[in-house]
Specification:
mainly beta
Amino acid sequence: QVQLVESGGGSVQAGGSLRLSCAHSEYAFPRNIMGWFRQVPGKEREGVAAIDRDNRTVVADSVKGRFTISRDNAKNTLYLQMNNLKPEDTAMYYCAAEMGTAFYSDYDARRKLAADMYTYWGRGTQVTVSS
């Protein structure tokens, strides 16, 4: 059973930066597709970014140019570097894992920003951005 543990959330002023981490419990991490999602109360979970085994990435338009997803397979860890944070980035951030391996097309990559594509989820880390 895959376990995912997020860390690195906190409170920051607008324009600031945070780096989220997600520790993955299994040796299969390098072969998993990994994603970051966020959710605010009363709204659906929103896909932020995803990465495949070959480090191909897809990023939501709402964070493009500000957020970067990356992975360190030696440490079984996923990262989300968030720069130039805005108050509208305030949310609970979750990492997720899926048993696929690679993005086979740009369309396939965009599909990996949908929450129903993922099997395993962490419990989340809160990010609060004040104006």
